[in-house]
Amino acid sequence: MSENPATPETHVAQPEAPEADGMEAGAQAPAATATGPQPPTAQEAARLGATAASAAVPRRGEPMFPDGTGPAADPAGSHHERRIRSFQPRRSRVSPSQADALRRLWPKWGRDIDGLSRIDLDAFFEGRPVVLEIGFGMGEATAQMAAADPDTGILGCDVHTPGQGNLLGLAERNGLSNIRVANGDAIILLREMLAPASLAGLRVFFPDPWPKKRHHKRRLIQPEFVALASTRLAPGALVHCATDWEPYAEQMLEVLSAEPTLENLHPSYAPRPDFRPLTKFEGQGLDKGHVVHDLIFRRRG
Ligand SMILES: C[S@@+](CC[C@H](N)C(=O)[O-])C[C@H]1O[C@@H](n2cnc3c(N)ncnc32)[C@H](O)[C@@H]1O
Asked: Whose CA is nearest to atom 21 of ligand 1?
């Protein structure tokens, strides 16, 4: 998990070799040269493979997805600048298959979190009740949960471009029509783009733990965030959080318990529910011997 202080968000998604589907914090895309954008070299074009190379390959320094063809690099831009963010902006390497999924599926199933308009969830999800998952990473667990419950819409929100492409690709390959992807900061999504009482649930699985004390203010689960999120939940909606970082689990329990509009369904932590698949970060935590805690709260009526 990254410990770096946030830097200005300047990522320009760049394609990379097909096998690189993993999340690599800190992976750097090639920077634009001093002489301006350059076309890829023959070697780079070869690395992209025939399909991706024949599609429009961006020149260095150009956005990978021009307006309307994929997720924006910084959708909220200057409209909603926040000083403290729960994620670390980073340059992201996008595989050809992820880029292909984004180009084809983003216009239909993706939304940039620009903070400028309300999302009509009913239209976007064809009438399904909608659960928001914040920070789906590469989206494997999201896709599994969506497959297990096709009548529920899953709005996955993340800033990680490769993961967005991965999740859209998983949705298509598995015939899942109940997944949509929001690109940007979940706080802006909740505050500006979702109507009060519009969500049937909220999931936050293994949010960045920001273990160092000076970074605790970056943790997503804070009193203000929980109060805001709760206003977007319909009565009876469930809030499900999980973490493998013990001090963060304690903070989650304290913060969620203190929110008057929520009630804990369990005396303390929840037993691990069968319906939550193992996530990538959970697996990494378990490998390190961490103990995983689930928390399940309900929005009061
Ligand atoms: C530690 S990863 C966990 C990913 C996945 N849930 C798992 O368990 O494998 C946390 C994810 O949350 C995303 N994230 C953090 N803060 C966010 C925010 N404010 N809005 C949207 N996504 C955020 C990060 O980009 C990252 O992909």
From this structure: 158
User: CA 30 to CA 38: how far, in whole Å?
Assistant: 11
| 46 belongs to a structural domain | no
Q: Is residue 7 part of a domain?
A: no
b/e for 99-115, b at 16 or more Cβ within 10 A? Answer: bbbbbebbeebbbbbbb
The answer to whether 69 is a known ligand-binding residue is no
Atom number of ligand 1 nearest to Cα 186:
20
Least confident interval from 65-74, 84-93, 270-279: 84-93
Q: In this predicted structure, which of 26-40, 192-206, 216-230 has the lowest mean pLDDT? A: 26-40
Query: Which amino acid type is present at position 238?
Result: L
Three-state helix/strand/coil letters over 110-131: EEECCCCCCCCHHHHCCCCCEE
- Using the mean position of ligand 1's atoms as its centre, give its distance from the Cα of residue 135 in Å: 3
Domain assignment present for 21: no
* Mutation choice for ligand 1 from 90, 134, 185, CB with most ligand atoms inside 8 A: 134
Look at residue 284 and tell me if it is in a domain. yes
Domain span at residue 246?
Answer: 95-299
Quick check: 69 and 105 in contact, CB under 8 A? no
Tokens of 100: 């292909």
We report the CATH number of the domain holding residue 236 as 3.40.50.150
Binding site membership of 112 for ligand 1 (Cβ less than 6 Å): no
Q: Is 208 a catalytic residue?
A: yes
Q: Across residues 209-217, what is the average pLDDT?
A: 96
The pLDDT tens digits of the residues spanning 105-122 come to: 999 999 999 999 999 999
Number of domains into which the chain is organized: 1
